[in-house]
Write a structure and sequence with these properties.
The structure holds three protein chains of three kinds. Chain A is mainly α. Chain A is built from 14 helices and four strands. In chain A, a hairpin with a 3-residue loop joins strand 3 and strand 4. The two termini of chain A are 42 Å apart. In chain B, helix 1 runs antiparallel to helix 2. In chain C, helix 1 packs antiparallel against helix 2. Chain C is mainly α. The mean pLDDT of chain C is 84. Chain C has six helices and one strand, in the order ααααβαα. Classes of the chains: A mainly alpha, B mainly alpha, C mainly alpha. Chains in contact: A-C, B-C. The interface between A and C is medium-sized, with 26 and 23 residues. Strand 1 of chain B pairs antiparallel with strand 1 of chain C, so a sheet runs across the interface.
């Protein structure tokens, strides 16, 4: 098939899935946080608040976009556009699965397979700071300016340990392409432990994985490193003066960044779409078993629905059947080579995203001087040490 | 309507580099704000980098890329020291206009 | 296709470069300069240098220019004043600069033989592998010297930022 048409179809597919995921990430975050704090979370709009993202979008779109007095109008409007477009750009080089053949068409499960994909993601994410810094400056407000200043210093500082942590898996795979890095992590030690970089012998990349995750929290301005928007000190930091679509764009950019760093982390350290144990031992049947189990559980609860929650008498059977249908999809031979790797990849990314939300519900915020000291005196030397050991091992092995 | 060549002549890149360099030089001569003057120097360095990479393409060697890599490293070091100097100057004189920072003593 | 891409990104680079000089507020200049750097990175890609293009964006646009924006935002001095002598300076400087650009362009166009063209994919030695091997064999000494230079710069910046001078 025509390369152009194929790319167009893939782009449309990825864009649709990505934007829906971004909208629902916010719902998931609110639900998880609520359950951590023993609350039900959003419940009113749709069954279990499932239509909440839609309601939020409508609310944000029809709100008035206030432009503060004496704001630099051009930069004020440019900043959220810059933030969200840069955040969405990185996804284009992330592969979601191996080369697959669907209906006789061979294609890679990615939008653009760059030889220097890792560098591309690093380059785009290093530009991401401009959206926040410019937004903070252009708002003409002291809180915004403080947020913008903090964010630019913080993101430049944490980019160093992040880049150094990324180098170790690159060294092990001897490549800068995500696809080759994932391919290098295929196989199993003793036929059971996956050869992912976090389990790589003789020197597991656990340390660099942890450093990468910590730096990723700082890069995406999440708790415990959300100093640029610390609401206790700075009202809302760099987006204090933004309302309506400007605020929505910054919000979306944050979730897109979280998704990107989780994808990168699972590709570089957790073996991307490589399964947890060999498919010879039945790892292909994990997704259908999981989905079937979830569906059956919902159907079981539907049979004895709680009277107070009227919605559940409708939603439980519907979602139960939906999950059973999903489980059946994984058993179709034509779709299996596409869906099973995709499942493993999405599962790893999902777990990492859950960790992001979990940490938000658990940890308090750092003080600013602690944040900077931590980056330069703890994280950076550790990353250098890890890189030295990895380099030595790679040099000795070759 | 000028017909576009199928392939870009090497001289186009060199001319672009020359024009960028001259723009940077103009900014260096005309602007008053130290930081802007500094940025115009960076613009000139960038123009030179473009020439290096173009020559690399012409010669079929990677050396030009390495030269521009070193230019970037030196520019990073220069920016760190230069901006520290600018901060100190601003702390002592409360201005960034180059004309007003002409005396050696306060 | 190559020519169209070149013209688009050359126009962006040139427009942003002129904007760097014309804008009166330093932060506008800084962002225009980021535009120049990103456009130049695309031109490096066209010239067959994916690694140097990535380094250009990561180091120049993502680190050095962030430092500039940070300083500008920190000092927050506002737009630059335009003294009256400015017109005279412009009148003298602009012809000189235009003749400089014209001279270099003329020489470049004359020296480069008309047969030499830039083809996308015609130069593949700009990949990270070749780059790394050249950097750590032929250019090992300059590489080590730059590390000392950076150390000096770090010490210098710390000393300047710390004390009252």
């Amino acid at each position: 098939m025509n390369f152009f048409v194929l790319s167009l179809i893939k782009t449309a597919l990825v864009a649709a899935v990505l934007l829906t995921t971004l909208a629902y990430l916010q719902w998931i975050e609110r639900k998880v946080l609520a359950h951590i704090q023993l609350r039900p979370g959003p419940y009113r709009v749709g069954p279990h608040g499932l239509l909440q993202p839609l309601a939020d979008v409508i609310k944000l779109v029809i709100k008035e976009g206030v432009i503060p007095a004496n704001a630099n109008l051009f930069f004020y409007l440019l900043a959220p556009i810059l933030a969200v477009s840069l955040a969405l750009t990185s996804i284009s080089v992330i592969p979601f699965g191996p080369q697959v053949e669907v209906f006789g068409i061979k294609t890679n499960m990615e939008l653009a397979g760059l030889d220097v994909g890792v560098l591309f993601v690093l380059a785009v994410s290093s530009l991401g700071v401009y959206g926040i810094a410019i937004g903070g400056w252009a708002s003409n407000s002291k809180y915004s300016l403080m947020g913008g200043l903090r964010s630019s210093a913080q993101m430049v500082s944490y980019e160093l340990p992040m880049a150094l942590a990324i180098v170790s898996p690159l060294l092990l795979a001897n490549s800068l392409s995500f696809r080759e890095i994932v391919d290098a992590q295929a196989g199993f030690w003793f036929g059971i432990i996956p050869k992912w970089n976090v389990f790589a012998g003789p020197f597991p990349q656990l340390l660099s994985f942890v450093i990468f995750l910590i730096a990723a929290f700082a890069e995406t301005n999440r708790i415990p490193f959300d100093l640029p928007e610390a609401e206790a000190e700075l009202v809302a930091g760099f987006h204090t003066e933004y309302s309506s679509m400007g605020f929505a764009s910054f919000f979306m950019a944050e979730y897109a960044n979280i998704l990107t760093v989780c994808c990168v982390a699972s590709l570089l350290f957790l073996g991307g779409w490589q399964p947890l144990w060999p498919s010879a031992s039945g790892s292909d049947f994990v997704p259908p078993a999981l989905f079937a189990g979830a569906g059956l559980m919902l159907l079981f609860h539907a049979a004895q629905a709680i009277r107070a929650r009227k919605w559940d008498r409708f939603s439980f059977p519907v979602f139960g059947v939906l999950f059973l249908a999903l489980a059946a999809l994984f058993l179709v031979p034509a779709l299996k080579p596409v869906l099973v790797p995709l499942f493993w990849f999405v599962a790893k990314v999902g777990i990492l995203v859950f960790v992001f939300i979990w940490v938000r519900g658990t940890l308090p915020r750092f003080r600013y001087d602690q944040l900077m000291r931590f980056a330069w005196t703890a994280l950076f030397p550790l990353a250098v040490l890890n890189l030295l050991i990895t380099g030595l091992i790679v040099a000795l092995a070759s | 309507m000028l017909a576009l060549p199928a392939q870009v002549p090497l001289s186009w890149y060199l001319i672009l580099s020359a024009v960028l360099f001259a723009t940077g030089a103009a900014g260096f001569l005309l602007r008053r704000n130290i930081i802007t003057v500094f940025m115009c120097i960076e613009l000139m360095l960038n123009a030179v980098n473009l020439s290096f990479v173009t020559f690399s393409h012409k010669l079929g060697k990677v050396d030009g890329h390495i030269f521009s890599f070193f230019v970037m490293v030196v520019a990073a070091a220069e920016a760190a020291v230069g901006l520290a100097i600018i901060l100190t100057v601003f702390k002592n004189r409360a201005t960034l206009e180059v004309d007003e920072i002409s005396s050696m003593k306060l | 296709m190559d020519a169209i891409l070149f013209l688009i990104f050359a126009a962006i680079a040139l427009g942003c470069a002129i904007n760097v000089v014309l804008q009166s507020h330093p932060i506008s200049s800084a962002l225009s300069l980021v535009g120049v750097m990103v456009a130049l990175a695309v031109l490096y890609l066209l010239l067959g240098g994916p690694f140097i293009a990535a380094v250009q964006v990561i180091v120049y646009a993502g680190a050095i220019m962030v430092l500039f924006t940070f300083t500008i935002m920190l000092l927050n001095t506002g737009a630059e004043s335009r003294p009256r002598r400015q017109a005279l300076h412009t009148a003298i400087a602009l012809p000189l600069v235009f003749s400089l650009a014209g001279l270099i362009s003329y020489l470049a166009a004359r020296q480069a033989d008309s047969s030499s063209v830039v083809t996308f994919g015609g130069f593949t030695r700009g990949d990270p592998h070749t780059f790394g091997i050249a950097l750590f064999t032929t250019y090992l000494l300059p590489f080590e010297v730059t590390s000392i230079l950076i150390l000096i710069a770090i010490v210098g910046a710390v000393v300047l930022a710390k004390k009252e001078i």
